[in-house]
Inverse folding.
């Protein structure tokens, strides 16, 4: 697993074995994950979303603790997956990194608790699966507008974004900070340390 520029996020780039029958790859290995993240991935829920081209989902996050870490893979088509550091006080606060996930390179992305997550479907029927550390809890879930100009996420310019009403109405990062919705880096670090205890 390769660590990204935003602390708490990694990309897994598997070896894909191909022959005349098709291909095979390992998209999650518990041992490799624990070595990178410093703790095992607790699996509480799995999700699958299918999106038409241009669908933009996120930026989503949940209260820490326990929040909801995600291990994300695109099993059909392609998406531009983005992790955003929304942890106040973090050295990389407001920074983001994008990774293309698709059914050719078979990368997976891990997004730790307290980070923001979003993706745009680059193809029709883009199918994304998530391994989640916690179940969905509406009272703890929040969003930030993925088109917030202050964040400046570089979504593909040739694709018109299609947002849900909820995501379109989400606050900007600055508004979310003013409303006290954002997790603190200090609280996230303490939670990561708690997860790493045997």
């Amino acid at each position: 697993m390769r660590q990204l520029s935003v602390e708490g996020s990694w990309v897994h780039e598997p070896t894909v074995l191909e022959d005349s029958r098709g291909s095979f790859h390992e998209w999650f290995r518990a041992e490799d994950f624990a070595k990178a993240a410093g703790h095992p991935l607790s699996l509480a829920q799995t999700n699958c979303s299918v999106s038409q081209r241009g669908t933009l989902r996120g930026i989503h996050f949940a209260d820490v603790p326990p929040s909801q870490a995600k291990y994300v893979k695109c099993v059909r088509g392609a998406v531009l997956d983005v992790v955003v550091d929304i942890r106040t006080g973090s050295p990389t606060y407001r920074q983001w990194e994008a990774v293309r996930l698709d059914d050719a390179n078979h990368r997976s992305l891990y997004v730790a608790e307290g980070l923001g997550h979003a993706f745009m479907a680059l193809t029709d029927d883009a199918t994304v699966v998530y391994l989640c550390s916690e179940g969905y809890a509406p009272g703890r879930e929040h969003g930030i507008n993925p088109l917030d100009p202050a964040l400046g996420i570089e979504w593909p310019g040739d694709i018109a974004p299609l947002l849900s009403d909820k995501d379109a109405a989400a606050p900007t990062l600055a508004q979310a900070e003013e409303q006290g919705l954002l997790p603190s880096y200090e609280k996230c670090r303490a939670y990561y340390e708690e997860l790493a205890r045997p």
Observations:
- The CA atoms of residues 80 and 100 lie 5 Å apart.
